[in-house]
Structures are given as structure tokens and as C-alpha cells.
Design brief:
- The chain is an alpha+beta fold.
- It folds into 3 domains: 90 residues, lambda repressor-like DNA-binding domains (434 Repressor (Amino-terminal Domain), Orthogonal Bundle); 108 residues; 74 residues, no CATH class.
- The protein is built from 8 helices and 8 strands, in the order ααααααααββββββββ.
- Helix 3 crosses helix 4.
- The protein is rod-shaped and about 120 Å long.
């Protein structure tokens, strides 16, 4: 009953939230310091509330909570004091502003994550493009070198073959000339002996027969020489080509049965080959030994060093193999 009377009396006297709380505090005999200690607030905050300075920075966010706690402690109806606070002009704009700020902060954070992901994807794309371009530059010089080596090898082989054929032709011509000359000498000797042993009446007939016989022999010998030279040519021409093939065996020969990344350097540090090779690719490489070799998938590679097979079974499949040749 006394509390209702106090509230009615306070409503008649007090017109503002601060005055109402101050009147209730003084009626109970509390000082501002007592209220500040009890609510665990600074004394300046209690003073600002009682003076209706609600727009102060330290009260802007928590004004309603402070006023509610103060009213509860001094026995003032919370709903009444909050309604009076709203009438006084301090409603809840701060809460709306805080919600709007929080929503904007979340949106900005989301946009920042999207932009960050976009930049990362762009960087990865540029990196992959640069790697592809670099590997293309490395593969082109190697292909050009292989073509040059093959052209240089084929040119000497053809030159040696043509020289050998010319030699055979010269030898065949010399053989024919010699065969033609020898029967002529025999033809001269035979008529002379015939003239010495025969009579004068039969000498002319004997000379005619002797002359025809050597001519026939000359023609037969020349035909045999031509035939033997012709038969010997194909066999002898093929022999230098076979020897030349053995002489140009490359230092390294690689055959791939699957995709494999490789990197091969010689003793001078010159990169002979690098990049990804596909199934069915073959490489012939020359350089100064020892060679530094890196194979991404040794299980799909067959390798020969100076014509001899290299055992790659000791390197586990699926792991990078690094070694030198000769070891």
C-alpha cells in the first residue's frame, strides 16, 4: 500500500526518468555512491542518468539496461520508468543501428571472402599458364636438336654409300680394260706361231681363223667381268650403311608406356630434355656423361645407356626416381 502511494506521489512530483529515480533514491536514504556500488557502475553514470543526460557516449548503448536496474533497486516500476524514458525521447534507435551495422559487417566480410577466393583462382590460372609456356619453350629446342642430329647422320651415310659405289664402278671398268688387253696380246702371239709352222699357201687362212678366235674370247671375258661387278654391287653397298647405323647409337634412349615427367641434364649442366611425356613417346639424347636423370614415374619408362638396357625395377612405382648414369 505504501509502495503504491509512493509511486503516485513520485508520478505527481517527477516529470522525467532521472528525477523519478532520484526521488526514489532520496526517499530510501541512498546516496549516488551507494547506487553506483550496488549496480557496479561509475558514479558519473548514475549522475548522468539522474540529470537526464542520456545522449552521453557511455550511456548511448546501455541506457535502457542501466535505467531498468536502477529502477528495480529503488523499487520503481520498470515498465513505468521505461515508458517514461520512451516519452522523454530515448527510444531504441541504437539497437536498430547496431543491427544494421552488424548486417553490413557480415556482408562486407562475405564480399571480402569472395574477392580473396577470386584472386587466388586468378593466381593459380596465371601460374599454370606460365608453367605450360615454359615447358613448351624447353621442348622445342630439344626437338630441333634431334632433327639436326638425324640430318647430320644421314648425310655422311649417303656420302659414303655414293663414294663406295663410285669405287666399285671404277674397279669394274679397270677389270674390263685389263680383260680386253690380255686377249689382244694372245691374239698377236697365236698368228705369229701359225705363220712360222704353216706353209705359205695356208698362212692366210690360219691367220683369219686365229684372229676370229681371240676376238670371241675377248668378248666372253668382258661379259663375265661385267656380270661379276654387277652381282657384287648390292652386297658391298649395304655393308657401310649397317656399320654407320651401329656407330650413331645415342647415349640415352627412352621409351614411354605411360605419362611421365622427366628432367635430364648432362655433366655441363645443360638441360637435354624436360616436361611431360606421353605413352608411345621415344627420345634419343646425346651429351657429356655423367647424366643427371629425374623420372616422375620410373615404372612406365624403358631406358638404354649407350645401347645397354638400364634396370629401373629397383625404383618403387609411383615415386620419383633420381639417379646418375653412369652410376
Amino acid at each position: 500500500m505504501n509502495r503504491e502511494q509512493n509511486e503516485e506521489r513520485q508520478a505527481e512530483i517527477a516529470q522525467t526518468p532521472g528525477e523519478m529515480l532520484r526521488a526514489a533514491r532520496e526517499q530510501l536514504g541512498y546516496s549516488q555512491k551507494d547506487i553506483a556500488n550496488r549496480l557496479r557502475l561509475r558514479l558519473s553514470v548514475i549522475n548522468d542518468i539522474e540529470d537526464n543526460r542520456f545522449e552521453q557516449a557511455q550511456l548511448a548503448t546501455f541506457t535502457r539496461g542501466y535505467v531498468r536496474s536502477y529502477a528495480k533497486y529503488v523499487g520503481v516500476d520498470e515498465k513505468s520508468i521505461l515508458a517514461l524514458l520512451d516519452q522523454y525521447g530515448h527510444a531504441q534507435p541504437q539497437e536498430q543501428e547496431m543491427q544494421s551495422f552488424s548486417r553490413r559487417t557480415k556482408r562486407e566480410a562475405h564480399d571480402s571472402r569472395i574477392m580473396g577466393l577470386t584472386w587466388i583462382l586468378a593466381a593459380v590460372f596465371l601460374g599454370l599458364t606460365a608453367v605450360w609456356w615454359w615447358q613448351s619453350l624447353q621442348v622445342q629446342p630439344s626437338t630441333h636438336k634431334e632433327s639436326t642430329v638425324k640430318a647430320e647422320v644421314s648425310a655422311p651415310a649417303n656420302e659414303k654409300d655414293s663414294n663406295y659405289v663410285s669405287t666399285l664402278e671404277e674397279n669394274g671398268a679397270a677389270t674390263v680394260t685389263k680383260a680386253d688387253t690380255s686377249p689382244s696380246s694372245a691374239a698377236v702371239a697365236q698368228p705369229e706361231s701359225a705363220n712360222t709352222s704353216s706353209q705359205s699357201n695356208t698362212s692366210a687362212a690360219s691367220e683369219t681363223a686365229a684372229s676370229s678366235e681371240p676376238a670371241t674370247s675377248n668378248q666372253s671375258i668382258a661379259n663375265q667381268a661385267d656380270t661379276s661387278a654387277t652381282e657384287a654391287k648390292p652386297v658391298d653397298v649395304q655393308t657401310p650403311a649397317a656399320e654407320e647405323t651401329v656407330a650413331v647409337v645415342p647415349d640415352l634412349q627412352l621409351t614411354f608406356s605411360g605419362d611421365c615427367w622427366i628432367d635430364i641434364k648432362d655433366a655441363n649442366g645443360k638441360r637435354l630434355e624436360t616436361g611431360i611425356k606421353k605413352a608411345g613417346d621415344k627420345l634419343d639424347l646425346d651429351g657429356k656423361a655423367p647424366f643427371k636423370i629425374v623420372l616422375g614415374a620410373p615404372g612406365v619408362v624403358k631406358m638404354n645407356y649407350q645401347g645397354q638396357p638400364v634396370d629401373l625395377s629397383k625404383y618403387p612405382a609411383g615415386r620419383v626416381a633420381r639417379f646418375k648414369l653412369p652410376q
